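Posting for a labmate who doesn't have an account.
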Amino acid sequence: MALKTRTVVYQHQGVDFEGHLAFPEGTESPKPAVMVIPTWVGRDAFACRKAEQLAQWGYTALAVDLYGGAKVGQTPEESSALMKGLLSDRSLLKDRLWTALEVLKAQPESDPDQVAAIGFCFGGLCVLDLARSGANLQGVISFHGLFHPPVGLPTPPIQAKILILHGFDDPLAPPEEALVLGRELTHRGADWQLHVYSHTMHAFTNPTANDPGFGTLYNPTTDDRSLEVLQAFLREVLK
């Protein structure tokens, strides 16, 4: 399917953000929409390609700018510093994500009543935080995400269905943390599911991930399997 893209500039707390919007060419009516929340690196080519892939499937998709000015970490140290700035203030992170969600809903190519969010690594934590915050979403999908919840924030009813796609050998969120997350979501009455993949580390969707000593390694088989599950889940939650 042919697609179109454009940059969507918006503001939050005086900072300019640049989202990458992709949608099917010839869109005459609003389409179900998907937020794409990137890894700790920021809104890089990987995130933009994911938005474009979703557009090829028939959705309107926005690759979210997490840091402002489409800033991308150039080294692991820089990416870590950028991410920690938001991890240390989960209230700011939530407000920034909610702003991007409203921007996506406001696009003429988007159906504001049919919206989901997917996230990768740090973005996986972000989509879980959106669900935890009671955001009006049909579904959220975490790919090799981080699981620890925010502390001290309100815990309204979770509206979104939740899909977690995770590697059993992910050292950044080991199986024990997945059990804690499952108990948390069950306690809060969420509709959730967890798919755990064997012989799979962190960042399994990213072809450039090749540092098993750090715990990141691309796994093409798991990547393909997770995309099939994603498509089925999106068909379920977005009508």
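Reply:
Got it, the structure tokens are right above this. The helical segments are 45-56, 76-87, 90-106, 122-132, 175-187, 220-237.
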